[in-house]
## 1
Amino acid sequence: MDIVLAQGDITLQRVDAIVNAANSGLWGGGGVDGAIHDAAGERLAEACAEIRRTRGGCPTGQAVLTPGFNLPARYIIHTVGPVWHGGTRGEPELLASCYTRSLALAEEHGLRSLAFPAISTGVYGYPPEAACAVAWTAVLAHPANHVREVRFVLFSEAAFRIYEHAARQRGINPS
Ligand code: AR6
């Protein structure tokens, strides 16, 4: 499995699925969630409403799939990161679960490429370095089957540098 680092807007990524840092009501808030809802179009809000109706939304650490609608990506995997409370309320395990559950969902649907944002590091306040370590560990532990490429898409140059540094620390030369 290749791990690729990219800087920019995840909504522009041509991959089988992009991952959304959503809220448990799938309400389409700000940050990357807002950008994804804007780019995917109104049918995404309808799909999210359907998931609320049938499944009550998406608990923290879990993931659900919708079509990508107007996005270049075929699907969106919505996962709900933990709100940072200092790290003592299971935040690392819940964040790891976001990556693991998203990858599992991608495998279930036979997807080959997946792009992740830095889940929980915006509004939810997770420290970026700690979140990056969780993301790398979870992705590297994934026993890939269909998934051939995981892209970390970082919005800022600072975030990109954190992921690059983490790669080097792990002896990885990401493409
Ligand atoms: N592409 C890639 N990354 C982005 C983009 C983009 N277009 N826009 C922002 N980011 P956040 P959270 C980065 O706040 O912390 C929403 O309201 C951003 O710089 O989007 O998990 C939801 O509805 C940051 O590094 O997500 C939830 O209520 C990262 O994405 C809540 O925010 C995550 O920041 C979720 O908070």
## 2
Amino acid sequence: MSKISKCLFPAAGYGTRFLPATKAMPKEMLPIVTKPLIQYGVEEAMQAGISDMAIVTGRGKRAIEDHFDISYELEQQIAGSDKEDLLGDTREIMSRCRFSYTRQMEMKGLGHAILTGEALIGDSPFAVVLADDYCVAEGDGVLSQMVKLYEKYQCSIVAIEEVPMEETNRYGVIAGELEAENIYRVSRMVEKPDPAEAPSNLAIIGRYILSPDIFDIIRNTPPGKNGEMQITDALQTQASQGNVIGYKFQGRRFDCGSVDGYIEASNYTYQSQCNPS
Ligand code: G1P
């Protein structure tokens, strides 16, 4: 049985909703309190037993590579001081994980970003984390929950949550049969449908487990919503064969691709980490 050992992070997007903050800085480096969004994603993947982090970057994203690298000058500067501890988590990540990078040269959609990562992933099932969906959970993280589910179902899995009907046009939306508590066998998937056309209010959030045949399927799927290569459309091919599970995860997700969600996530994390009273 294949184990999930790699996680792909599509991280080439511009983050225009956060301009001017993201003019020269990747949106994945926006901090929730003191840790950048992408680091939370990497930690979630590590908790799920994954040690290979494959990051699809783009122009202006060098800070991500620098973040997961040694900074000799800085480390020498703070060596022996109480500030050293602040780099502890990052050091731990660097000692336990392997990072690889590739660049997406044109923005042609999430499907295209994932296809760009093929060279880093190869022919095994893999996880995908969209770092701007920031997830918190008590106990197992969302990706750990999904990796466990993969052991049973051995097919692609998308994390889903209920959203207000009027927001379906912001997400991939699924329809399916309830197979067990919180687990749906997906039959239909639509990218960002208007509420009137949405098959349900079960929205896909930025956590996926994908079987590697998805790469060929993406290659053979015509552009969809907004003329972009959509992962949702490629997954529909697998769903038509009964090979996609929708999983209502345990935990809470913040949409840090929006200013409101980002502020909410920051306040929540500050309250729970720094000011727990
Ligand atoms: C992408 C996917 C969408 C999914 C969403 C989750 O959209 O295309 O299906 O629901 O991520 O965050 P984006 O937010 O990149 O527009």
